[in-house]
Amino acid sequence: MGVVGHHVVLMLQYLSLVVMVLVIQTLAHNPDWGQTEPYVEEMMGKAKVTKLRFYFHDIMSGKNPTGVIVAQAPTTNQSATGFGSLAMIDDPLTEGPGLTSKPVGRAQGLVGFASQKELASIMALSYVFTDENFNGSTLSILTRNPIMNPVREFPVVGGTGKFRFARGVANVKTYWVNATSGDAIVEYNVTVIHY
To answer: Is-contact 121 147, C-beta < 8 A?
Structure first.
């Protein structure tokens, strides 16, 4: 190999080294696991407001309950508020207050009794809609529920499908309750902003 060939090899090695350093610097300053971009409303389209009214049926009794206790505090710690109990639910949502009313979805998630002094729970629920208008779409609620208050307000913290990027509130009131069985029907009036 002549002097020119040797210089070409050295130049190619140098260029390869420069390219490798540039790639490493780019990866170090722009990780592929996250990227922040400016928010442009036009990317999402116009925001919409949807108002929903439905009934939540919490059935803790009978042969086919839709809510079951999956964990409970030791008997020495049991209180009148249910403190320490954790339930998993798959409750029907209907258009009207009757269980035979048109089904519109299911409420699925966890309800934990979180207060030693009052009947209050912490809820992490996904409201999965099945009717033709919102089929497959969900709303997520994460909240504290002071059950004995006649009217409660829950935050809607997210959504999917037709409720993508949802935020809003659910005004909730107990329609009917059986204190012995724990069965209840709860009316939801939900207002969400979404794209």
So the answer is: yes
Quick check: 86 and 109 in contact, CB under 8 A? no
Residue 1: how many CB atoms within 10 A of its CB?
Answer: 8
> Per 3-state DSSP, what percentage of the chain is helix, strand, and coil (rounded to 5)?
20, 45, 35
Nearest to 87 by CA among 105, 109, 106: 109
3 state SS of 15: helix
Instruction: State the maximum Cα–Cα separation within the chain, in Å, rounded to a whole number.
Output: 97
The domain locations on the chain are 1-30, 43-194
The one-letter amino acid at 133: N
**In terms of DSSP bridges, do strands 103-113 and 67-71 run parallel, antiparallel, or are they unpaired?**
unpaired
Q: How far is CA 98 from CA 10, 51, 94, 107, 133, in A?
A: 83, 20, 8, 16, 21
Average pLDDT, consecutive stretches of 10 residues, N- to C-terminus, the chain (195 residues) = 61 67 62 74 84 98 96 79 94 98 98 94 98 97 96 98 96 96 97 96
**What topology is assigned to 43-194 in CATH?**
AOC barrel-like (2.40.480)
